[in-house]
Design brief:
By secondary structure, this protein is an alpha/beta fold. It is built from ten helices and nine strands. The site of adenosine monophosphate has 17 residues, from helix 2 and strand 5.
Length: 282
């Protein structure tokens, strides 16, 4: 496995691979790897010759009061895990290389980014769309892998790639969870023991909601209320949103029908976690 820390060297490597007729996939991450990230690598390895994982903590997707400074970093550990999972190249560009002085170009995707996390993190998706566009332009992958843990992000990237004819197939892979159901996240490390125990309620509340719908509940408000009540029973939890949305448009629904997504964002102490599930109702 190679680690390439510079954009022009990455471009040279990509050119070489293309010349040899190799197909390339990209797994964009912010590092501090866990099994969720590695599941994307596993999928990528099945479909392409060369798997490139980017590790870049992208400052422009963090709000001024968010955790850019303290986001966990451990390149050595990431390199070991990535090597073991079969990553061919880690692309680890510097901040200065990605955003040199005078940088001025940003990408925004409308509609899909208005609801859910877009309401509380207005700059976030613009930051993600911009960095992903840059990574696609540098790595020129045929396929890129994203996790459903960040469903709105994956859907936005898919839409962007299609709207802008980027020629990248965007795949969304299932959420990988801890034993108690908590979605794996680099940010779980921030949780105290009590918060970590409380956080398991997210998955329990999603499962409970699935059950309610399966048993015939069609009133979105009743389902979100049940989810909210379960989450509120945990002392360290503070809800940002609990929403039922159309799984295609991510717009709020009142009645549950067709394919819908239940998405939640909840603070446990200072740590903001998100999770979601999609439910199909015939
Ligand atoms: P991050 O490093 O948090 O920016 O995540 C990088 C990629 O891994 C994104 O596409 C995430 O959606 C995906 N990812 C993060 N956590 C999980 C998880 N628990 N299961 C599946 N994919 C995940």
């Amino acid at each position: 496995m190679k680690t390439i820390e510079n954009i022009s060297r990455m471009s040279t490597f990509v050119k070489m691979m293309k010349k040899e007729g190799k197909s390339i996939s990209l797994v964009p991450t912010m590092g501090y790897l866990h099994e969720g990230h590695l599941s994307l690598v596993k999928a990528a390895k099945k479909h392409t010759d060369v798997v490139i994982m980017s590790i870049f903590i992208n400052p422009i997707q963090f709000g001024p009061k968010e955790d850019f400074e303290k986001y966990p970093r451990d390149l050595k550990r990431d390199e070991e895990m990535a090597r073991e999972a079969g990553v061919d190249v880690i692309f680890y560009p510097s901040l200065k290389d990605m955003y040199p002085e005078g940088y001025a170009t940003y990408v925004t995707v409308e509609k899909l980014t208005g609801n859910l996390c877009g309401e509380s993190r207005p700059e976030h998706f613009r930051g993600v769309a911009t960095v992903v566009t840059k990574l696609f332009n540098i790595v020129k992958p045929e396929v890129a892998y994203f996790g459903q843990k960040d469903m709105q992000q994956a859907m936005m990237v898919k839409k962007m790639a299609s709207d802008l004819n980027m020629g990248v197939e965007v795949k969304m892979m299932p959420v990988v969870r801890e034993k108690d159901g908590l979605a794996m996240s680099s940010r779980n490390i921030y949780l105290s023991d009590a918060e970590r125990r409380d956080a398991a309620v997210l998955y329990q509340s999603l499962k409970n909601a699935e059950m309610l719908v399966k048993n015939g509940e069609r009133d979105a408000r009743k389902v979100t209320k049940a989810v909210e009540d379960m989450i509120k029973s945990k002392q360290s939890a503070r809800i940002e949103y609990v929403k039922l949305v159309d799984a295609g448009e991510l717009s709020d629904v009142k009645m549950i029908t067709g394919e819908i997504a239940l998405a939640v964002a909840v603070f446990f102490g200072e740590t903001r976690l998100i999770d979601n599930t999609t439910i199909m109702v015939k």
